[in-house]
Write a structure and sequence with these properties.
InterPro entries: 2CSK_N (IPR013727), HAMP_dom (IPR003660), HATPase_C_sf (IPR036890), HATPase_dom (IPR003594), His_kinase_dom (IPR005467), HisK_dim/P_dom (IPR003661), HisK_dim/P_sf (IPR036097), Sig_transdc_His_kin-like_C (IPR004358). The chain is about 50% helix and about 20% strand. The chain is α+β, with helices and mostly antiparallel strands.
Length: about 450
């Protein structure tokens, strides 16, 4: 059984079926109406002929009746023409006049019938249909009958009946198809609010839990579902808020014990143990700092009019991490644009993203190699190293929080790249990860170019 998941598809299929059935029923109904109309036209014509014949009846002096037909009517009822026939019957059933060869009545006379009767009969293989009217002429009651051989019926009526389906019946199908197209347009317009709601729902991410589905223009039948979804989003938003608050509170609470621990470690008598513990404390402090960064970014918003100098931000970060790089046997190089490169965004957040990329590159670059900052005039900054590079399988994983290639290795916590990704999302920027031809990885941040800061 074929299933149609789209509402419009279901409506269209059902309408096509209805159109086909309606087309057949309408054609049958129109055919029946045409048959009735044709029969009425025929009966009226036969009655008019019978009335015309009765007008030519006249009494003779001897009390009998005479039928004085003009030449036009004589030709109409002539045997060679053979299309029409007449008969005049008295109240005793005797045939007074008849156009038939055997001078017999056309229909059986029903004395108890109405003044006007429409009758059908068969004479041999011929189907005869006509009218019988009762008249009083010269004090005598007679029945005047006029009939037509249906095998030789009116040419106009024949054409209408024969060509009905070809010229009239099939008109109904295009009309119904036009109505179907109009119906589809109406349904699409009626379902447009649902399409807009689905587009809005696609924008909902863990970083945008404040978005809600529009409710005003939603059809009444779907409103309970939209309301339930919005309430579920409210609960999720509350859950994310509590999680962010917990992360920030936990990080704040850890700062004080770490500061105290750092002070006490410095008083130890064994310098080797003190140095090792001091490195561990610094690593823990960095994790706490990154947790605070994450909590801050979750609630951070950027002013659309805010502009930052990407070249200046990169130069400041390069100067900041240079001592760390030299201490670990690496060098820092700032390449590319030397003039200001203005992009849309917050300068402090951009520097934070570049610093995380730089620290990550320094950590993975081999000793005696250079970590390069390349600033381009189109609003792109790239951090390049000569490390092991990033495999295709890992390029999506590296932005997950706390993900590390080797969890047994000392070093990063797996939060730096997730912070970079969140900053990029806030700025409408994109991150591109690729391996360099000469070895190593390249992380590129593509920001939105700006014309420059507004003058005071």
């Amino acid at each position: 059984m074929i299933r149609f998941e789209s509402i419009i598809s279901r409506i269209v299929i059902l309408h096509v079926i209805v159109v086909a059935i309606t087309s057949v029923l309408m054609s049958a109904a129109l055919s029946w109406l045409l048959s009735v109309a044709t029969s009425n036209i025929h009966n009226q014509a036969m009655q008019e002929q019978a009335v015309s014949l009765a007008e030519h009846l006249a009494p003779r002096a001897d009390g009998t009746l005479a039928l004085n037909l003009p030449p036009s009517l004589q030709g109409l009822y002539s045997q060679p023409y053979g299309r029409y026939a007449y008969a005049v019957i008295d109240e005793n059933g005797k045939t007074l006049f008849s156009s038939r060869k055997d001078n017999t009545p056309i229909f059986h006379v029903d004395a108890n019938g109405g003044t006007v009767q429409f009758l059908d009969t068969h004479i041999g293989d011929a189907a005869i249909s006509g009218a019988s009217i009762r008249r009083s002429v010269g004090g005598k009651t007679v029945w005047v009958q006029a009939a037509e051989d249906l095998a030789n019926s009116d040419v106009l009526i024949d054409d209408i009946v024969d060509d009905f389906y070809r010229h009239v019946g099939w008109i109904t199908l295009p009309i119904l198809l036009v109505l179907l197209v109009i119906d589809i347009a109406i349904f699409r317009r009626a379902l447009w609010p649902l399409r807009q709601a689905s587009e809005t729902a696609q924008q909902i991410t863990p970083a945008r839990t404040d978005i809600r589905l529009p409710f005003e223009e939603i059809p009444t039948e779907v409103r309970p579902l939209v309301s339930a979804i919005n309430k579920a989003l409210d609960r999720l938003d509350e859950g994310f808020r509590l999680q962010r608050e917990f992360t920030a509170d936990a990080a704040h609470e850890l700062r004080t014990p770490l500061s105290i621990l750092r002070t006490r470690v410095e008083t130890l008598d064994d310098p080797g143990v003190a140095k090792a513990l001091h490195q561990d404390i610094e690593a823990m402090s960095r994790v706490v700092s990154q947790l605070l960064d994450i909590a801050e970014l979750e609630a951070f918003t950027i002013d659309p009019s805010e502009v930052a100098d990407l070249q200046a931000a990169s130069a400041e970060v390069a100067g900041f991490v240079a001592p760390l790089a030299l201490e670990q046997g690496r060098e820092i190089a700032l390449l590319g644009a030397t003039a200001p490169v203005f992009v849309k965004g917050n300068a402090e957040m951009i520097k934070r993203a570049i610093r995380n990329l730089a620290e990550n590159a320094i950590r993975h670059a081999p000793k005696d190699t250079v970590v390069e900052f390349v600033v381009e005039e189109n609003g792109t900054v790239s951090i390049q190293d000569r490390g092991p590079g990033i495999s295709e399988e890992e390029r999506e994983l590296i932005f997950r929080r706390f993900w590390r290639r080797d969890r047994n290795s000392q070093g990063g916590s797996g939060l730096g790249l997730s912070i970079v990704q969140r900053i990029a999302e806030l700025h409408g920027a994109t991150i591109e990860v690729e391996n360099r031809v000469m070895g190593g990885a390249q992380f590129s941040l593509h920001f939105i170019p700006a014309s420059g800061p507004a003058k005071a």
